[in-house]
């Protein structure tokens, strides 16, 4: 792995996006619109908005980056550019880190806007520091990137890649504690939710929501999310083969 | 047809010096199918070698084996003195796949800049990279489209962008998979002029696949492939003489018939 090749790859991914302003606008604005909508859906119960809003600040970057990365990587595979890159002196790590860096940067913009809007315009009441919210959002984005990269290896078409979204993301969404506290689920489901990374993303957000300082649970939650992202990235790297049939 | 054969030193039966590619018993399987069956051949250095045969005969598979992207390769395959697929070869081979492999949402120049940065990274090489990108754009005659999105170009133009990428870094071996398919005659002539120049002026070894037999006459040497077998390996002149044919196409058909009766 070389830093300059990683940076060149990240710059290339961002350049590609720059030619597609509509995608950027959708990625950045849709979470804001959803939060706005949510704020007035829970107009009569601001406490519910606080809890769900904070959780969603962690979930949006995960879903967006999952979708964007799985399609982008699939395009790289089907357009032949992946084969070309792997025939060149580019490390697999350079490619993956390049993608993670580029989408991570985008996630920072997306999360900063969504967090800013939620806190200062929509009155989301958070006890802890907004920077911690942003940190969790960024880690969630990395997790989304990692998952997207990984599943793209199993999708033969963009059609299939999109179907991986409900398959990989929806179960996590149902079990992450967004709809009901994880402790109140049927024990088997609770145990299942304990091994899904999105649960920790939501738990982490809720720690920031309720505590003014960095708690031990927050450190554990963010470490689990970061660790899962790293693990899945390594698995994703293993799916990039220089020699294919 | 003035440019059909630019001046090049005639190649005697066996090229001098060590070949750029040497294959012994090269076999490739894809699932239950054996795509290449024990091929023995060599590609002389600094020459234009044509890899000819009908669609589906294994040309692309052979090329992928050379550049190290093909799985399940057995036998011996040495490229520029290293086993095919060695990491040391990655910056020394330029490879153009049959379908143009460039980013359609980047401009021609941006595509080239990225691949140049992969080949030769670092800020200290920025000047060299710029010169290489400019030269590659000129080589394929896309100067007037340098700032167009690759996705907005015609199929033939996109193919030339893909070719320009392979020319970056002055590779010693160029592996070009059907680079002239679907192009108009004028453009084809220009590209063959370029390929010839790459060999004679820049000393590169050029391996070009084609299923269009009239392009064979422009090569120094030919590998005729059919159904995973090597039918012949010689100069176009020698092939015509051996078979008493007037064109390489006729010679190919003659060889196919002869193989069938054996």
TrEMBL record, chain A:
UniProt cross-references to InterPro entries, sorted A to Z: ABC-2_transporter_component (IPR051449), ABC2_TM (IPR013525), ABC2_TM_bact-type (IPR047817), ABC_2_transport (IPR000412)
Keyword Cell membrane (UniProt): yes
Membrane-spanning parts: 24-42, 54-74, 95-119, 131-154, 161-181, 222-240
Keywords: Antibiotic resistance, Cell membrane, Membrane, Transmembrane, Transmembrane helix, Transport
Topology of this chain in the membrane: Multi-pass membrane protein
PROSITE patterns: ABC_TM2
Main subcellular location of this protein, as a coarse class: membrane
Domain annotation ABC transmembrane type-2: ranges: 18-243
Locations listed in the record: Cell membrane
Family note: Belongs to the ABC-2 integral membrane protein family.
Name of this chain's protein: Transport permease protein
Organism: Streptomyces physcomitrii
Lineage, opening ranks: Bacteria, Bacillati, Actinomycetota, Actinomycetes, Kitasatosporales
UniProtKB/TrEMBL annotation, chain B:
ABC transporter domain ranges (all copies): 21-252
Ranges where the record places region Disordered: 1-26
Keyword annotations: ATP-binding, Nucleotide-binding
Statement: the UniProt record of this protein carries the keyword Magnesium: no
Record GO terms (molecular function): ATP binding
Listed name of the protein: ABC transporter ATP-binding protein
Species this protein is from: Streptomyces physcomitrii
């Amino acid at each position: 792995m070389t830093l300059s090749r990683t940076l060149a790859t990240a710059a290339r991914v961002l350049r590609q996006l720059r030619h597609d302003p509509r995608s950027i606008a959708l990625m950045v604005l849709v979470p804001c619109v959803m939060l706005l909508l949510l704020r007035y859906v829970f107009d009569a119960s601001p406490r519910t908005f606080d809890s769900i809003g904070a959780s969603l600040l962690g979930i949006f970057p995960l879903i967006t980056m999952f979708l964007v990365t799985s399609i982008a990587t699939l395009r790289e595979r089907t357009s032949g550019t992946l084969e070309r890159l792997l025939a060149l002196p580019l490390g697999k790590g350079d490619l993956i880190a390049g993608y993670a860096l580029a989408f991570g940067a985008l996630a920072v913009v997306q999360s900063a806007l969504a967090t800013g809007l939620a806190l200062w315009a929509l009155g989301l009441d958070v006890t802890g520091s907004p920077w911690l919210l942003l940190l969790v959002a960024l880690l969630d984005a990395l997790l989304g990137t990692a998952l997207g990269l990984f599943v793209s290896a199993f999708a033969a078409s963009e059609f299939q890649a999109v179907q991986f979204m409900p398959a990989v993301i929806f179960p996590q969404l149902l079990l992450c504690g967004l709809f009901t506290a994880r402790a109140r689920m049927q024990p088997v489901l609770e145990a299942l939710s304990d091994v899904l990374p999105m649960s920790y993303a939501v738990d982490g957000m809720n720690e920031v929501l309720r505590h003014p300082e960095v708690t031990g649970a927050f450190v554990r939650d963010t470490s689990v999310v970061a660790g899962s992202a790293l693990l899945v990235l390594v698995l994703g790297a293993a799916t990039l083969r220089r020699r294919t049939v | 047809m003035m440019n059909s054969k630019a001046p090049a030193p005639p190649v005697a039966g066996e090229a001098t010096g060590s070949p750029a590619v040497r294959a012994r018993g090269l076999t490739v399987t894809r699932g239950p199918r054996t795509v290449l069956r024990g091929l023995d051949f060599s590609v002389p250095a600094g020459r234009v070698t044509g890899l000819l045969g009908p669609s589906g005969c294994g040309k692309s598979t052979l090329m992928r084996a050379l550049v190290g992207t093909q799985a399940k390769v057995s036998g011996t395959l040495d490229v520029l003195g290293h086993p095919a697929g060695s990491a040391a070869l990655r910056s020394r081979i330029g490879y153009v796949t049959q379908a143009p492999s460039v980013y359609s949402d980047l401009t021609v120049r941006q595509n080239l800049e990225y691949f140049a940065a992969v080949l030769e990274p670092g800020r200290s090489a920025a000047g060299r990279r710029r010169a290489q990108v400019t030269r590659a754009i000129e080589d394929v005659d896309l100067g007037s489209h340098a700032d167009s999105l690759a996705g907005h170009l015609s199929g033939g133009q996109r193919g030339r962008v893909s070719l320009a990428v392979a020319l970056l870094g002055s590779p010693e071996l160029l592996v070009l998979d059907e680079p002239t398919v679907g192009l108009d005659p004028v453009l084809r002539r220009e590209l063959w002029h370029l390929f010839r120049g790459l060999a004679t002026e820049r000393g590169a070894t050029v391996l070009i696949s084609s299923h269009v037999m009239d392009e064979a006459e422009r090569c120094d040497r030919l590998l005729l492939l059919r159904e995973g077998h090597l039918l012949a390996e010689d100069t176009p002149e020698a092939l015509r003489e051996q078979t008493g044919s007037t064109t390489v196409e006729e010679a190919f058909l003659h060889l196919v018939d002869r193989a069938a009766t054996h």
